[in-house]
Amino acid sequence: MRASRFFISTLKEAPSDAEIVSHQLMMRAGMIKRLGSGIYTYMPTGLRIIRKVENIIREEMNKAGAIELLMPLVQPAELWQETGRWDKMGPELMRVKDRHGREFAIQPTSEEVVTDVVRSELKSYRQLPINFYHIQTKFRDERRPRFGLMRGREFTMKDAYSFDRDVEGMQKSYATMFEAYTKIFTRFGLKFRAVAADNGAIGGTGSHEFHVIASTGEDALVYCPTSSYAANIEAAEALASGERAAPTQELTKTSTPGKTKCEAVAELLDIPLQHHVKSIALTVEAEGKKTYFLLLLRADHELNEIKVNKVPGLKEFRFSTEAEIGEAYGTVPGYLGPINTKLPVTVVADRTVANMADFVCGANEADYHYVGANWGRDCAEPLVADLRNVVEGDPSPDGKGVLAIERGIEVGHVFQLGTAYSEAMGATFLDEAGKPAPLQMGCYGIGVTRILGAAIEQNFDDKGIVWPDAIAPFELVLCPMGLDRSEMVREHTEQLYADLQAAGIDVIVDDRGLRPGAMFADWELIGVPHRIVIGERGLKEGNLEYQGRRDEAATSVPVDGMVAFIKGKLGK
Amino acid sequence: MRASRFFISTLKEAPSDAEIVSHQLMMRAGMIKRLGSGIYTYMPTGLRIIRKVENIIREEMNKAGAIELLMPLVQPAELWQETGRWDKMGPELMRVKDRHGREFAIQPTSEEVVTDVVRSELKSYRQLPINFYHIQTKFRDERRPRFGLMRGREFTMKDAYSFDRDVEGMQKSYATMFEAYTKIFTRFGLKFRAVAADNGAIGGTGSHEFHVIASTGEDALVYCPTSSYAANIEAAEALASGERAAPTQELTKTSTPGKTKCEAVAELLDIPLQHHVKSIALTVEAEGKKTYFLLLLRADHELNEIKVNKVPGLKEFRFSTEAEIGEAYGTVPGYLGPINTKLPVTVVADRTVANMADFVCGANEADYHYVGANWGRDCAEPLVADLRNVVEGDPSPDGKGVLAIERGIEVGHVFQLGTAYSEAMGATFLDEAGKPAPLQMGCYGIGVTRILGAAIEQNFDDKGIVWPDAIAPFELVLCPMGLDRSEMVREHTEQLYADLQAAGIDVIVDDRGLRPGAMFADWELIGVPHRIVIGERGLKEGNLEYQGRRDEAATSVPVDGMVAFIKGKLGK
C-alpha cells in the first residue's frame, strides 16, 4: 500500500467524550469515526485490523470443523417469541416494524435463527455433531453506550452454535471450541486468560469467558499462579480462611455512638477490621409473606450477589428497608447483628465468618456493638454459605496454592446451553432407534470489534498504539527521507517496497512527503509495529535503519539483508 | 474441503413460492434458506459464492484506487433529513426508533453517511480525488419481495462514492469505475452489457447500468451490433424511420363503429397497422389551470413515459380523464386525433409520426376515423419529440447500424451525481485559492447477492446450475467410487486431493459415501464446473475420468497428468 493512495487522518487531541485510552487512541489514529451514540464508521485503517481479526477467527473456526454461513440481521419477532426472549429481553433488543406492521428484531445474537435452520435441515443423528458460525453485524441498544468500540451499540461479533446428540457430545464440541479460542487469542498476540464463568440467565451447565488482560479492564479475574485454576470474580469460590478458634473473650455490649460503619467501629475500639462482622439484612417476599435473612461477612470482604442468589430461599431477595429492619431487629441500620434479633431471622454466615471467634458485631441496639461474640455460645450456629468475592491470598479452590487477581476485558464467551433453545423451539433429531430427541446445544461468541479496544488497552504507550504483528493495520512502514529530492532514496524505496511485498509482508510506504517528525508521529500513533527509515546518509554506507515500535533506538541493517531481517522479526 | 465436514442439503423439488429458475435452483441446491419475506440465510454453499464475488469486487476496487471502509447499518435520521431523503423515500426506507425514541434508518445506501465523513475529514484539494467504498448489508422494505435474491429486502451491496474538485475530475473518476466494473464482470465470467441509463430521480449528469444478459431478465437492453452504442430502453433514443412522403390521398372521414383500438380499425379498413396513429390525451394542471396535450405514436410503437417527462411542459403530466377528453376533444376515448379538436390542444408527435403521410387517426367523433390524413394540409404541423421505446431494426443513434434488443438483469449502476448531496450537506473543500467549493460526487453500486441470481439465470440446464469457474462454490469436485471398500480408490483420492490443494485449486472431495447417481446429481444441481471420478476400473489402467459441467461425456485422463490438466482447464 502507498500512503498517498490510502486514507490517513490523525488528530493531536482526542474528542472530549473519549474517556478511555483505547477510545482516545482509536479516534486520534483515525481508525473509527462516530456517527451516533455507540455507532461508528470503521475508517480504512480500523477496517484493516478488523479484517485481520476476522480472518484469524475464520481460519481457526474452519480448522476446528465449524461451518460458516450468514444469518440475517433483521429477524422475525415470531422466532424470538418461541423462546420467550422477545418479552424477556428489555429495550436493548432493537425492534422494528416493516411496512406491513410486522415486527422484527435487529439481531443481537442468533440462537433462534440457527435453531430454526437446524430444526428443518437436520433430521438424523448421522448429521451430528455440527457447528455453524457467522461473522455478522450485531445491534444492542445499550442504555449508556460508551468507551468507543468497547460498549458500542452496533458491533461485529462471531457467533457459533454447536449441535450434538447428547451431553457428552456437547461437552466435546465445547472443548473443541475452547481449544480453538485458545489458538485464536494466541494468534492475536494478546495476553489473555480463560476463566470459568457463571452461566447466569442464559442457563445451561458450563461456561468460560476469554479475557484480554489489561489493568484498565472492567472485570476482575481470579487465578492461581501455581495451578490451572481461573474463574471470574462472580464464579470464583471463596473458601474459609483459617479455622475457628475457641472463645477467649466475654461478650461485652460496648457503646459505639454514631459509628454505623465497621471501619469507624474498628478505629474507635482499636480492634483490627478483620475481627469485625458486617451484617446485611435481606427480605424475601412470597405470597404476601415476608421472610427475613441476615447475611454476615467479614468486615473487609465484599458481598457477591450472584452467590447470594444461589443460597436456598434467596433466589429473589432484596435489601431490607429501614422499616423492615426496625421490625425484625428492633434497631436502625448500622447496628445489626445475629445476637438478640427482635423477630427470628435466618442467619447466613459467609464461610470465613463461620470460622471467626471473639468477633465484633452490631448489638441490635442503636449506638451499641458487641465485642467478643462467639458462635454457639452467644447465638445459634448460623447457616454457612459462600457469600463473598475472593480476595488476593485466599486459598485456591483446587487446593494448589493461593489466589491472585488481575483485571481483564471480556472478548469471548463459550457456553454449554443444553436443550434450553432446542426444547423451546422443538428442534429434535432422530436417534438410532428412530426416536426424536432434543438437540444438545452450545454457543460461542467473540466480540470482533471489541478486540480492537481490548488490544489497545493492553498495548499502548505515550506515543500511541503498539499493535501485535498479527492484527496490525500494516506489519511494516517504510519511511523514506526526502523522497522528492533524492533519486537514490526513491530507487531504494521502490526496490525495497517491491521486495517486501514479494516476500508476503504487509507493508505501507509513506510517500506523502511529510517531515520526518510528523511522519514518525503518525505511525507511532497508529501503532505499526515495525519501521524502516530509508535515508541518503545510511544508504551511502549501504544501510537502512530499522526500529521496532517498542525499541528505544534504531538498528542499522545492511540493505541486502533487510528483507530477511524483517521476515525474521515477523517470524515468516 | 471434505463434503463430510461441510453442509450439503439438496432438495428434489423447489418450494412453491420460488417463481423463477434462479430462485428454484438456489433453494434446491441448499444455497439459501428463507427466514422471512425477502430475508434469507446464506447457507454455507451460497456464502462461498458470495465471498468469491466480494473478493473479486474488492480486488478490482482496490486496484482502481478506491479505499475500503465500513459504514454503519443503523444511521441517524438527522443525516437523511439534511438531504430530504427521509421524507422523499417512501416505506421502502426501513425506519427504527431506539430506546430514547430517536429515529434511525437501516441503510439502503450510504450517500448521506459518506458525505458526512467527507465533509469533516476532507479539507483541501490536495486530498482529492478520493473514492471510498464498502461492502455491507442493506435493507430495502420492498412492497413485494420476490424472486429469491433478485428482489430481496435484506441484501449485500458494494457501494462506492467518489469525490472530486471539478466536473472533469468527477468524469475521470467515473471512467475509472466504469473500467473497474468492466473488469469485475469480466472476471465473474458472465456475459454482460453496460448500457447508458437515464439518471432519473437521483439527479446528476450521466449514468450507466451493468446488466447480466439473460433471456429471463426484467430489463430490455438496446444495442447496436455494429457499433458500441448501448442503452437501456428508457434511455435509448428513437430516431424517425424513413422520411415524410407527399400526400397522395384525400382526407376521408370513415365509419369505424365500436373500433376503439388501432388494431381493430386496421383490420376493419384493411390498412396495415404501420399507417395508423395512436392518440394519447394528457392533462397538466398548474395553479388550478388545466392544459391539454395530445401525444401521437405510430400504432405499433410503445409510449416511453420517461421521455414524455422530458418534453417541455410535461414534467408533471397525467393521463386525461374521460370528462377531460369530452371537454377538449368533444368525443370519447378511442376516437381522438389531431384534426378538429374541440379546444386548442398542444399536439406532440413522435418523430416517426411526424414523418408519416396518408395516415389513419381518430376523427374526434365517436365511431369515426380519418383515413388519408396529412400534416400541414389537414392540421397544423405538430411539435416533434422522441416519445417512444425503440424497436429492433430502428436506426442506431450513432448512425452506425440498426438496433437490436436483448434482455438483462441489472447488477451494477454507476452515476455522476455532481453536487446534489454535497450542496445539501455543505460538503466543501478549499481550492488552491483557499475558497470553499462543493465536492463533485459520483456513486457506484454492485448488487453482490443479486449477482448469484443473475449468474444462474444466465447459466443453468435441466440438471441444475452451471457456475463460471471464478464464482463457483468449488472449482472442482472429486467423486471417488466405493471409497469404503477400495484401498486403491482411497489412496488415489487422498493423494489427488492433496496435490490439487497444493496447486491452489478449490476442490471438494465427496466422502459422504453416496451412490454415484445421487452424488453426481448433487454436484450437477449445485453447479460445480469440473468433476473427476476416481474408480477402480480406470485406476487399473492408470486413468481418471474428467467431465466438465457442460460436457456431454467424460474424458479419460492419466492419473499423473490430472493436476496439470485441471490447471489448464481453470487457466491457472
UniProtKB/TrEMBL annotation, chains A, B:
CDD domains: ProRS-INS, ProRS_anticodon_short, ProRS_core_prok. Pfam families: HGTP_anticodon (PF03129), tRNA-synt_2b (PF00587), tRNA_edit (PF04073). The keyword ATP-binding applies. Its main location: cytoplasm. Residues 33-468 form the Aminoacyl-transfer RNA synthetases class-II family profile domain. It is an enzyme of class 6 (ligase). This is Proline--tRNA ligase. It comes from Massilia hydrophila. The gene is proS.
